[in-house]
Model the fold of this input.
Amino acid sequence: MNAARKLAGSNLEYNFKFALRPESVTWKEFYELLAEWKKTPHPETISSWIAKQTAAHSIARTDIEADLYQTLLNAKHQAASNAAEASTVENNAAYCAEAKSLLTMTGQFLALPGMFTPERFGGLYKASLYWIAFRANSADGDLRSSERHLLLALVDRTTDDDAPVILEVLKPMGPWAFHPEDGETMQLKKELRDECIARLLPKVENAFPAYLNRPESLRLLSTPQGSSAFRYVLFSPDRIPWAPVIREALLEMLRKAKSDQNAYDKANELLQLLLDAAGKRSNYIDCQSAVSIAEDRDFIVALWQGVTSRHVQFRMLKSYLSKREALVQLGVHEDDLPLSPELANARKTDGGNETQNGTA
Done:
């Protein structure tokens, strides 16, 4: 296969697919659809074509939808590439107009029921970043403006449930997301990303209370499997102090710790996350974030009340005392961390043992 590919190029792999099934969307079929759409540029033209293609080839509708979307991105990319390589302003404008038509068609495809997904947003976003610095010609600038407008429109119609996944696509937590780039290109990419993030963050924050109710949702934030979107809204320095919806959800969880085992477990998970970050033992949370959260006196009081709201079993008393000491070292007032009777007795006993050991 590899030797043949070197001789025949990418066309060989393309043709091998026909041994398994007909191609979902050939270029010939795509350009026929494009010509039909230009005569009647409405979403119904696209959905009708998908239905006919599904019936004609007995291929799953989802396969045709996926291939059509990728073909739209590829065709638009090729038109933008032709515009960049055009030798005259007139040719550049013509290719940009073609790319803009394909972009409009892409937007209509994504407007069809069920077609807009975080993965498809990611594909369009990545494709838009590729050409973002090509704006010297008037037609190029107009195309870049249309790309930005479509991305922002998609962000605005994103549901709260999908918002965390799309935030992960944008990588707000990645300081090196645009490196290596020249300064101007990096700035353009950052501006587009930041504009999308600003519109998306309220939706992610609205989704946080539901996320918080999931089993081990906080513990997982210290692992690669954890949601980087919720990790960002909880622990990124520029998201502290928290938005009201985040803070209230956490406080409500802490208020339920005594009567709700899930809430009690999460209170302890959150305390451990903060202490790991404070001790620089976390790969995901910065120490400064833990310091900033510890400065929220009312929240820390509620957190300590939550983790001490139940009787601590004998073997864990010393661990809780160690966590209390770590909070004090983080800057929390001792008066805000009252000792339960069993913790007070354990500290007294532990102190007595230390004295006896010292005397011995």
